[in-house]
Amino acid sequence: MAAAAAAVPAAKLEDAEALIDSVETFIFDCDGVIWKGDKLIDGVPETLDLLRSKGKRLVFVTNNSTKSRKQYGKKFETLGLSVNEEEIFASSFAAAAYLQSIDFPKDKKVYVIGEEGILKELELAGFQYLGGPTDGDKKIELKPGFYMEHDKDVGAVVVGFDRYFNYYKVQYGTLCIRENPGCLFIATNRDAVTHLTDAQEWAGGGSMVGAVLGSTKQEPLVVGKPSTFMMDYLAKKFGITTSQICMVGDRLDTDVLFGQNGGCKTLLVLSGILIIPFTLNSSASSAEFASALTLAGCLLQV
Amino acid sequence: REEIFASSFAAAAYLQSIDFPKDKKVYVIGEEGILKELELAGFQYLGGPTDGDKKIELKPGFYMEHDKDVGAVVVGFDRYFNYYKVQYGTLCIRENPGCLFIATNRDAVTHLTDAQEWAGGGSMVGAVLGSTKQEPLVVGKPSTFMMDYLAKKFGITTSQICMVGDRLDTDVLFGQNGGCKTLLVLSGVTSEQMLQSPDNKIQPDFYTNQISDFLTLKTAAV
Question: What is the model's pLDDT at position B220?
Answer without folding.
Answer: 62
